[in-house]
Amino acid sequence: MKARHLVMMALGSAIGTGLFIGSGAAVRTAGPAVLLSFLVACVLLVLVMRALGEMAAADPSPGAFSTWAENAMGRTVGRTLGWLWWAQIVVVVAAEATAAAQLLTELWPVTEQWVLALVFMVVFTVINLVKVRTLGETEFWFALMKVLAVLVFLAVGVALLLGLLEVPSPGLRNLTAHGGFLPTGLTGVAAALLVVIFAFGGTELVTIAAAETEDPQHNVARAIRTILVRILVFYVGAVTVMVLVLPWNDEQLSVSPFVAVLEAAGVPGADVVMAVIIILALLSALNANIYGSSRMLYSLARRGSAPRAFADLSDRGVPRTAVVVSVVFGFAAVVLNYLWPETVLLWMLNTVGATCLVVWGLALVSQIVLRRRADRAGTVLPLRMWAFPWLSWFALALLAGIVLLGLLDDAVRVQLLLTAGLVALIALLARTLGRGRAAAQPPCPPASSASSSSSRS
């Protein structure tokens, strides 16, 4: 992949249904004070991504945070984290294919939902089997469309607030009307924070792509530096427009906040346009997550933590077996969702729902351990965490606080406990199976293979 692919993949992974739909639920939960929730969440995301960026620039690996956790804390932790993240992603792949098919069926009811889900899975499986550059180019254009959609939304919102449109401007009154700035109190801000944090899950995918990027040390550092500001602008900017344009208790915010704002601005056909954008966002995430899950499985196989066949590479440097195996689970989940739409997929999503907290927490611990080793060895790092170790510990403290808040919320508590149970099960299996001798590693990682493939393309 080229630098532009990595930057747009990083940005695209952060702009998805969490922003287009989940942000409205957060506004309804906390009112205008949701801005505080987003600011806290963005600060945490910035710190986590900076820590991940430091490790990715120093050691680009297809296993990313799983590999670094193994280097920092041992094989059992690395295995557990890798398999946990893989399990989450294959479930999310099925959910994204199903959701995109459902939305498209509502817009264009010419076939069954499961047929469209199957088509999406097949198309993006083929894209992931071709070569890395094809996948990177596809994701680049998907991400670009999402970015343009957010920019148009921000432009329309600002124009409305400045009174440049034919509809009257609401000004700043929605910040304090309808119960004040904190209509649901600090508990509402805390509850909204949980919604926002889960919406940010998946942004760590860019560190996996770093291993197949040209000049990863330079390009990863560049991507991390540029992406952080853009995420802040897009997320905080979009939510600011929402809370200024509409009353926080407007029911339309729960359905589609972007559509609600655009309709308030008098934009015709906003519902159809945003439905198409959300479908594209889901397909973009589907594409990226098939990629991420296959690379994680490939890395686990290279480290002797999965069957060695999963580490086989095609002539173009694509771990095709890992792609197929990851997608098979996605196909199976789609079938299960078709048979039991109200139970199986929902249960699986709840089980892996809090995975991002585990990934981020162990990533921060890994960064602290590996950074101290690097400092003792006098290693010069291409990208460094700010104010180390204080900001790393601060980010861990924020995560711990979020977990405690989650335990006080009935719905989130279920996710946390199910994820904890899954972590314990995977760790037990990893510990038991890890007593065997590790498989020998294949000679070439995909980074070098991808680079040679890119040079041929």
UniProtKB/TrEMBL annotation:
Keywords attached to this Swiss-Prot or TrEMBL record, sorted alphabetically, are: Amino-acid transport, Membrane, Transmembrane, Transmembrane helix, Transport
Q: What sections of the protein cross the membrane?
A: 35-52, 83-101, 113-130, 142-165, 185-206, 227-248, 272-292, 322-340, 346-365, 386-408, 414-433
Instruction: For the region Disordered, give the residue spans.
Output: 437-457
Tell me the membrane topology, using the record's own terms: Multi-pass membrane protein
What region holds the Amino acid permease/ SLC12A domain?
Answer: 5-413
**Superkingdom as given in the UniProt entry:** Bacteria
Q: Which Gene3D superfamilies match?
A: Amino acid/polyamine transporter I (1.20.1740.10)
An example Gene Ontology CC term for this record: membrane
Q: Does the keyword Transmembrane apply?
A: yes
The primary site where this protein sits is membrane
Pfam families named in the record:
AA_permease
**GO BP term (any one):** transmembrane transport
- Which locations, inside or outside the cell, does it occupy? Membrane
- List, alphabetically, the InterPro entries matched: AA-permease/SLC12A_dom, Amino_acid_permease_CS
Regarding protein family, the annotation reads:
Belongs to the amino acid-polyamine-organocation (APC) superfamily. Amino acid transporter (AAT) (TC 2.A.3.1) family.
**What protein name applies here?**
Amino acid transporter
* Species assigned in the record: Kocuria flava
